[in-house]
Amino acid sequence: MSEPANEPTRADALKNREHILRVAHDAFAESGTTSLNAIAKRAGVGAGTLYRHFPTREDLVLAVYRHEVRRLVDSVPDLLAAHAPLDAFRGWFLGLADYVRLKHGLGEALDTAAARDAVNETYAPVTAAVGTLLRACEEDGGVRPGLDPADVLLLMGFLWRVPPDPEGEEQARRLLELAIDGLRQVTRS
């Protein structure tokens, strides 16, 4: 009979964890050096609650990283359902660029063996998401057939190298269009 009483606690704990991850993402986006105590305060939870879920700063940073990558990967079907394939492709890569800029802002926090393992474990799902987008674009006639998702992901790396300001965002959009033009079906006369 004690098991049903534990169900809400687990649901509440999961809800707290998800809330902390969202708050930490926003806090790290503002400053990669935000303290765990500042994040706990901003999340409206006690430091003990935060440390129970994430005993170290690295644990929290890696959890935010994994959570955001999972969110990006999981967003592909919804984007494709709501937008034309090339528009979904554009939006997804711009979202990925925003996230990678955040990741770079964390600098040293993601320069550990555990972080490199996390990056390596998320590469396959990200590449698979790119493959899903490419297949939809190919079926729609927006890109030529046979593009390698890993190649396209590497090509799109320019997106997270532009400055995160209005001029950089505009430059990213222009460069994205140039890259998409290169992915289109080549017609020869």
From TrEMBL:
Query: Domain HTH tetR-type: where?
Result: 14-72
State the source organism's domain of life. Answer: Bacteria
Q: Which Gene3D superfamilies match?
A: Tetracycline Repressor, domain 2
Keywords from UniProt, A to Z, are: DNA-binding, Transcription, Transcription regulation
Q: Extract the DNA-binding region annotation as residue ranges.
A: 35-54
Q: Which InterPro entries match?
A: Homeodomain-like_sf, HTH-type_TetR-like_transc_reg, HTH_TetR, Tet_transcr_reg_TetR-rel_C_sf, TetR_SbtR-like_C
Give the Gene Ontology MF terms in alphabetical order: DNA-binding transcription factor activity; transcription cis-regulatory region binding
Transcription regulation: present as a keyword of the record? yes
Q: Does the keyword GTP-binding apply?
A: no
User: Which Pfam family, giving just one, matches this sequence?
Assistant: TetR_N
Q: What is this protein called?
A: TetR/AcrR family transcriptional regulator
Q: Which organism is it from?
A: Streptomyces radicis
